[in-house]
Every structure is written in C-alpha cells, then in structure tokens.
C-alpha cells in the first residue's frame, strides 16, 4: 500500500520541537514534485527545531520501501553532525505522547547519511537508537549509532531504502536491494528515553516517521507491505 499520495500530507502528523502536534512550523514539511520535502527556506536559523512527520497508523510486521535524496545546503544553525543527515524512524512512540520540547521520539532510527568528501566512506541506512537498545549477534548493544556496510552516496542522487520489521524479533535494512545491517530484540531504554516508566519493555510495534535535522531532504515512492498472515 502507498503511505504517501504524492499530492498532500493527508494521513501524516507533524511534531516539531517547541511546537504543538500538528503545527507545521515554517512549512518545514511540504509536497514538491510528488515528494515530501524537508524544507528550510522559511527559516532564519535552525535553532534545534528537530522535527518528525508520522504516518497516522502504527505497524508491527512489515516491509517499508521508499526513495530519498539530499538536496541544497544545510540551514544556518544546524549541528555539524547533521550535515546531509536525516532518518526514517520505526517503532516510534505515538506522536501524541511526545513532550513539547522533545528532540526525538523513542524509536529505532534508520539513519540516512550523504557522502561529504569524495573517497571518504560515509555509510547510510545505519542504526541509531534514541531511547532504545537492540541486540546484535545475541549481544545487547548500548552504543547510540552503529554503521552499516553500505556504499557511500554523493550529491543529489535518489537512493532506494527498504526496511523489514518482524515485530521485535528481527529488523533488517537494505540499500538499493543489498542488505547492509541486521539486528533484533529492540527494547526501551538509554539516552533520549522519555518513557522512563517503560524502561526495558520490548518494542513490538510503533509508528513510522521521517526526520528533519537541518539539511533539506526529499522522500518519495513510500510503500508498505504488511507481512501479517
């Protein structure tokens, strides 16, 4: 099924740090040429206005497929680490449960990075864990970000991302059809955890969101295949 109609942001909910749910501050999220564009043309400075746009329905067992690309220049005031940096968040907490000034939802982040310097590796579809931990090779990992083994992608080329989510048992990231990282058993906990009362709880379901972190990025052809039987 298509999660994005290519025309408007119907069925999506926006939460930007410092602003109430539903306030698309400075029109950060727009539809341009049949893509969801993270746009900063109305910003003077970024001001740590981290944002996320959530699809309205939570999912648990599925395969997500989309294309993304970085465009333009980072807005003034963005963090140096956020240059050509965005993400697709899975197993997110409900947007209604986020605090007004919360940076990131408790979630698993499929971190998207664009290449910076020719010849210098910068992988994409990495794993980051805002408010979560995962296991890899049967070992609990508490490192916030772990690199995938993907290629590096420069410029404004479109990159195809797929994420296969099997409840809390196995999650795999694919870039242009190649598996680049795999892990299992996500739980709530660690840095950025706003759901302290749920510390240690398994993440078996959640929302899907797209991130704004200060560099313009576009997302298109967003499809979801349910794997429920």
Automatic annotation (TrEMBL):
The organism's superkingdom is given as Bacteria
Which Pfam family is one of this chain's hits?
3keto-disac_hyd
Name the UniProt record assigns to this protein: DUF1080 domain-containing protein
In what residue span(s) does the 3-keto-alpha-glucoside-1,2-lyase/3-keto-2-hydroxy-glucal hydratase domain sit?
Answer: 2-223
Its taxonomic path starts at: Bacteria, Pseudomonadati, Bacteroidota, Flavobacteriia, Flavobacteriales
């Amino acid at each position: 099924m298509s999660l994005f109609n290519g025309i408007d942001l119907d069925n999506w909910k926006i939460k930007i740090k410092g602003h109430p749910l539903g306030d698309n501050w400075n029109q950060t999220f727009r539809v341009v040429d049949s893509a969801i564009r993270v746009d900063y043309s109305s910003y003077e400075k970024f001001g740590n206005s981290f944002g996320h746009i959530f699809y309205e329905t939570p999912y648990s067992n599925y395969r997500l497929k989309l294309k993304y690309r970085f465009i333009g220049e980072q807005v003034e005031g963005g963090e140096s680490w956020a240059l050509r940096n965005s993400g697709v968040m899975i197993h997110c907490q409900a947007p209604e449960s986020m605090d007004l000034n919360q940076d990131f939802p408790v979630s698993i982040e499929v971190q998207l990075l664009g290449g910076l310097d020719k010849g210098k590796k910068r992988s994409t579809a990495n794993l980051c864990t805002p408010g979560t931990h995962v296991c890899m090779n049967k070992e609990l990992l508490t490192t916030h970000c772990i690199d995938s083994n993907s290629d590096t992608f420069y410029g404004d080329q479109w990159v195809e991302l797929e994420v296969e989510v099997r409840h809390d048992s196995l999650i795999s990231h694919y870039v242009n059809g190649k598996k680049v990282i795999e892990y299992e058993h996500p739980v709530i906990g660690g840095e950025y955890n706003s759901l302290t009362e749920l510390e240690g709880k398994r993440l078996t379901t959640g929302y899907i969101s797209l991130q704004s972190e200060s560099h313009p990025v576009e997302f298109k052809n967003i499809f979801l295949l349910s794997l429920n039987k």
